[in-house]
């Protein structure tokens, strides 16, 4: 039987977890595309030492050898059936730009997690290179995982019961489920469309929202080690209110779109409180309020705010993913969609403004998405989508005029 080819893109925790697990399946040839720094070489070296890429820990127990580990896009891409990007959102476009020219038509290209606006960018790269593919995105990474020896061992500490997947065109999602389940080894359920994935991206609510709540009055002072705030369990009613407001603005956006185009399964776009209680049902001791649900969630025990150590103490780490990923590839995209749906987002605007300043980026000017760094984000307007109708057409078909012009997956 001819094996299918999975190209895993990235050299971090999630990428190595996926490569290790899928590599132990009979029907798949796994290739790792690791173009960042000298990761490909480091990984080959690790593999040689350990005799394979191994999953360890509570959900581990496999050992396999990827067929290819490379930083050369052609080697990774030729004849690929499924390309999965498992890396921070800011690395998605550079990797696709390199790979797409070498990919066959009909390939499936996914990101895990997709974050927000992946589909607009991916279709743009495909169009530029005159390639046709099915694009998909997963809501989350199925595992909590950490590398324990580069190219050698990955610890799987947690595993989700199920993860959601959406696609462009939207109708392709159910057809992709069996393949996704086989490769990931977890239950995968179809989500109506990628717009739901974008709006339901809970990281954009929780991460920038808590950073804003904890540090909005920050004046440059140093923290002692014992003064570093807990990130989730440092929740207080004022910060919980910020998260609820962001969440409400996102839900209002989803509702406004749905009122005109019954497109989104509105239930997919959960409020933060519902999401937290459902996701951590067994770990929360007191769910009487959003604040208490964060504070008493055992899975958050001891997790502190991201800080940078200096000689004399600690400062908030504003270069952390909680901002550099979740603002431009989260909240900014949502704000752009809210604009198309004519929904006001005062709290999201405030968090984008302050979070943007912390990471040295200007997205909003006078409440408008016309700041100098907007072109770096994945807002639909950057890809020619300037009306709600075009957004809806694209979401359903992958084309702003509503033509389905994509080929079926191989
Ligand atoms: P990671 O921190 O291991 O990713 C780092 C890797 O990304 C690098 O090793 C490199 O391969 C790649 N990378 C970084 N900068 C790059 C650049 N400029 N150009 C090209 N490649 C670059 O990430 P991870 O832990 O694998 O997580 C991947 C995604 O999944 C992230 O969005 C993360 O937030 C999310 N996530 C991770 C976990 C987890 O347990 N690891 C859990 C939930 C969600």
| CATH superfamily membership of the largest domain | N-(1-d-carboxylethyl)-l-norvaline Dehydrogenase, domain 2
Q: What proportion of the residues form beta strands (DSSP E)?
A: 15-25%
Mean pLDDT: 95
How many extended strands? 14
Query: What structural category arises from helix and sheet content?
Result: alpha/beta
What would you call the shape?
globular
Estimated helix fraction: 25-40%
> Which regions are unreliable across 5 or more consecutive residues at pLDDT < 50?
405-410
| Alpha carbon gap, first and last residue | 16 Å
CATH names the topology of the largest domain as N-(1-d-carboxylethyl)-l-norvaline Dehydrogenase, domain 2
Q: Which ions and ligands are bound to the chains? A: nicotinamide-adenine-dinucleotide
Largest sheet: 8 strands, mixed
Number of domains: 2
Q: How do the SSEs run, as a string of H and E?
A: EHEHEEEHEHEHEEEEHEHHHHHEEHHHH
As laid out across the biggest beta sheet, the strand order is 5-2-1-6-7-8-11-12
Number of H/I helices = 15
Going by CATH, the architecture of the largest domain would be Orthogonal Bundle
The level 1 CATH classification of the largest domain is Mainly Alpha
């Amino acid at each position: 039987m001819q094996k299918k080819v999975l190209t895993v893109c990235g050299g971090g925790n999630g990428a190595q977890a996926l490569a290790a697990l899928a590599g132990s399946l009979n029907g798949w040839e796994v290739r790792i595309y690791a173009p960042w720094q000298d990761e490909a070489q480091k990984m080959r070296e690790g593999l040689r030492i350990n005799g394979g890429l191994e999953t360890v820990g509570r959900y581990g127990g496999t050992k396999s050898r990827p067929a290819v580990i490379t930083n050369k896009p052609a080697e990774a891409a030729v004849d690929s059936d499924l390309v999965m990007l498992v890396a921070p959102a800011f690395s998605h476009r550079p990797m696709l730009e390199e790979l797409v020219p070498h990919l066959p038509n009909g390939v499936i290209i996914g990101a895990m997690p997709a974050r927000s606006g992946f589909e607009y960018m991916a279709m743009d790269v495909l169009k530029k290179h005159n390639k046709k593919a099915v694009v998909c995105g997963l809501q989350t990474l199925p595992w909590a995982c950490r590398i324990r020896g580069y190219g050698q061992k990955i610890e799987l500490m947690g595993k989700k019961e199920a993860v959601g997947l959406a696609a462009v065109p939207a109708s392709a999602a159910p057809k992709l489920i069996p393949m996704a389940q086989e490769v990931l080894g977890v239950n995968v359920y179809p989500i109506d469309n990628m717009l739901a994935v974008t709006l339901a991206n809970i990281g954009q609510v929780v991460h920038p929202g808590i950073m804003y709540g904890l540090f909005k009055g920050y004046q440059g002072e140093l923290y002692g080690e014992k003064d570093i705030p807990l990130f989730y369990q440092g929740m207080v009613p004022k910060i919980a209110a910020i998260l609820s407001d962001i969440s409400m603005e996102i839900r209002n956006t989803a509702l406004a779109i749905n009122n005109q185009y019954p497109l989104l399964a509105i239930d997919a776009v959960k409020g933060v409180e519902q999401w937290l209680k459902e996701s951590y049902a067994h770990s929360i001791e007191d769910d009487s309020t959003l604040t208490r649900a964060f504070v008493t969630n055992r899975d958050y025990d001891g997790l502190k705010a991201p800080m940078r150590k200096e000689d004399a103490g600690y400062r908030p780490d504003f270069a952390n993913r909680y901002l550099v990923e979740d603002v431009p590839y989260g909240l900014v995209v949502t704000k752009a969609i809210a604009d198309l749906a004519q929904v006001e987002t005062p709290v999201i605007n405030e968090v984008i403004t302050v979070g943007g300043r912390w990471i040295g980026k200007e997205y909003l000017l006078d409440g408008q998405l016309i700041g100098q760094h907007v072109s770096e984000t994945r807002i639909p307007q950057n890809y020619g989508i300037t009306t709600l109708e075009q957004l809806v057409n694209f979401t359903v078909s992958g084309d702003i005029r509503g033509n389905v012009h994509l080929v079926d997956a191989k």
